[in-house]
TrEMBL record:
Protein name: Nuclease
Species of the source: Acrocarpospora corrugata
């Protein structure tokens, strides 16, 4: 009897090498001693985990809102506060948030529903002035210790707050029965009703080995069972498989998150609805280097928002001119 040996070989990650891989190498290994608290039996008993297809009769959201934001550092600066304050490092940054309105299965194309652009000067100086240029005004924002990581976190917090404000205001005006998909983890937005966080990249494998094995077994339009996860914050989560040609581990996998306060029927209905609609919005590799996880509406919104931020060269020169003349 002869045995067929599999030849050594390799596969290529479908994401453009200019971006980080969709899943970190260490995320594929079983995590031992992870600090994440898991409840694997939210939907089914842990030993019975298997791929789940949304049942027949699952209704897609009547309206799907997709919220995203972009950020850019226009210049690194030194901020001079009051006469007794030492100059401190800061960043002049532009950031924007937007919402795309989609009607799954309908004839109405995706449309921009709301957009807002803001600019801020972040530093630890307690009395920093705003940066006034001929092109834009950067409002002074105080961060913590003024380190580079702290400045970046302060910028991200303001961007998240802008996304939340935009979503709340738009929903209050429209009054529609919608589902909101936010690009990125749900942290800081768990209080929003009917909202799902959409995570494209995976830095950690939160599941134990038996349940983690279900993830690569998913096919297009399937999901894992819902589980509850707690790190520094609590949420429900599940993994979804998008259409992809690559055979690399976890190719086409996205993680979805929902609020921890939802009941089991509520979060399961939410998981089925979003799993039903996501594959039709998956990005395609010849158009997007982060396909399929970077959904078509998200890619289009990011492109529009970056355009709305303005020309970085012009803003940089305007900031330098304003600093010279002050």
């Amino acid at each position: 009897m002869s045995t067929t040996l599999q030849r050594p070989g390799f596969t290529v990650d479908p994401w453009d090498p200019g971006y980080a891989a969709a899943v970190a190498v260490e995320a594929l290994a079983e995590l031992e001693g992870s600090s994440a608290e898991l409840d694997l039996e939210v939907e089914v008993p842990a030993p019975e985990w298997r791929p789940i297809t949304p049942p027949v009769g699952t209704a897609p959201p009547k309206v799907l809102l997709i919220a995203d934001g972009v950020r850019r550092i226009d210049a690194r600066v030194w901020v001079h506060g009051g006469p007794e304050e030492m100059p401190v490092a800061g960043i002049a940054a532009s950031y924007a948030a937007g919402i795309v309105r989609c009607v799954p299965g309908g004839d109405t194309p995706a449309a921009l529903a709301a957009v807002e652009v803001r600019r801020s000067l972040f530093s630890s100086a307690p009395s920093a002035p705003e940066a006034v240029t001929p092109l834009a005004v950067y409002q002074a924002e105080q961060s913590g210790d003024g380190g580079l990581d702290d400045l970046s976190l302060a910028l991200q917090r303001r961007l998240t707050e802008l996304e939340v404000t935009l979503a709340i205001n738009y929903r209050a005006e429209s009054g529609e029965d919608d589902l909101l998909l936010v690009d990125g983890p749900l942290r800081g937005r768990t209080h929003l009703p009917s909202t799902v966080g959409y995570v494209k990249t995976h830095h950690t494998s939160y599941l134990p080995k038996p349940q983690a094995a279900v993830v690569p077994a998913l096919v297009r339009g399937q999901r894992t069972p819902v589980f509850r996860m707690g790190t520094s914050w609590q949420r429900h989560a599940w993994y979804v498989k998008l259409p992809v040609r690559s055979q690399t581990p976890w190719a086409g996998i996205a993680r979805c998150e929902a609020g921890a306060d939802l009941s089991v029927p509520e979060v399961v209905a939410l998981a089925n609805a979003i799993t039903l609609v996501l594959p039709s919005m998956a990005g395609v590799d010849y158009k997007d280097p982060r396909a399929p996880q970077n959904l078509v509406p998200i890619g289009g919104l990011e492109k529009l928002l970056r355009h709305r931020l303005g020309d970085p060269g012009l803003l940089y020169r305007a900031l330098r001119s304003a600093a010279t003349s002050s």
